[in-house]
Amino acid sequence: MHEASPWWAPHVYADRRDFLKARGRIATACRAFFQAEGFDEVETACLQVSPGNEIHLRAFATDLIAEDGDRSRLYLHTSPEFACKKLLAAGEERIFTMARAFRNGERSALHHPEFTMLEWYRAKAPYAAIMADCVVLARVAVEAAGGRTLRWRGQTADPFAEPEILTVAEAFARHAGLDLLAALNDRAALAAAAARLSIRVAEDDDWSDLFSKILNVRIEPELGRGRLTLLTEYPAREAALARLKPGDARVSERFEMYACGVELANGFGELVDAAEQRARFEAAMAEKLARYGEAYPIDRDFLAALEIMPEASGVALGFDRLVMLAAGAERIEQVLWTPVAPRGAAV
Predict the structure, then answer these.
(1) Residues 283-299: pLDDT tens digits?
(2) CA torsion, points 209, 210, 214, 216, in degrees to nearest 10?
(3) CATH code (residue 22)
(4) In the structure, how many helices (H) and strands (E) does the chain have?
């Protein structure tokens, strides 16, 4: 079988070079935006006590060897979120980072085991403020790339048009014919909707599994068509690290931004209730242990920082994906200077 040429082969590299040059211009333009907004750029350690506590994420682990030879487990972070929030607790108010992040078992046209997360936080600001930031950065990226639209696989999205703002419940009603708010505790209703939409339902799928399947198969491909979509008010059980919406605890202050059916950003009105966050982490790790036979530690230092962290809003944006869509690349490897090898050494 013919083996593909490595990324550094001159003819392969030549095909990617325009995308990489665009990446540099987009990074410079993004940094200029944050500087104009009064942000400080921070650098967070990649090695952390906990890589994050989402059920389905898989992390890279290593051992830290102390001077006395004692070993302790550390992980490459899946996001710089915990470290950034500790900086908010320390007193920073406007910060951003272009951080390397690491997620194992993820590789596709849009996924890579090592990638760049553009993450930023505004203390004492509503999450509408960071939604507005996302839209501006999409425009900044397109202009830096020398174009006018975001594009991927035959679809386009005009970031200069007024973005569509759609709640998750509205999206499910429009694209899946389901009253999501009436089914928040009804697995059977989601299973019936999935079956009607020709989505496979497994016996062990729980409510969140079915929610994700319907979202991924029927909702996301319809988002960001012609213009950006801001998908808001995720159900409370999908809140992750977001606070619940004041006045309506059925949903949370979580949003995602889409272009051309691609998720570009995931943001929160940040939860600062340490007890509630601990409970969410413990429930998620119990589920992870039951499903996969492993669970990641909870960063108790992070929970301590939440006790004094100010109200804030923050967002993580997939920088590589933004570059892809702004420059017209088809696969994430095209916009990475040195992609990770498809396979490592045998173990």
Answers:
(1) 999 999 999 999 999 99
(2) 10
(3) 3.30.930.10
(4) 9, 16
